[in-house]
Amino acid sequence: MPEQVDSAVFTVTATWDAEAGVFYSQSNIPGLHIEAASFDEFVALVRDLAPEMIADNLPRVAGPISVRIEARRDLVLPAA
């Protein structure tokens, strides 16, 4: 039986899709797929859904869970 992990660090990236008008997730949390119209909504969904996805898909993680949320938005700017 695999050992239990006492703590874990995960990263969730919120990338803005201008065409769809949503932030979508990329993450190392198995099963976590999020789309949200605002960054605040995105963070709230991570807070609600990440613990469940970790419990369902990574049962060895038992201790404190740290989730880093990074926002990404690409801009195309005119040359000066």
From TrEMBL:
SUPFAM superfamilies: TTHA1013/TTHA0281-like. Residues 10-71 form the DUF1902 domain. It comes from the Bacteria. Pfam families: DUF1902 (PF08972). Gene3D superfamilies: TTHA1013-like. This is DUF1902 domain-containing protein. It comes from Rhodoplanes serenus.
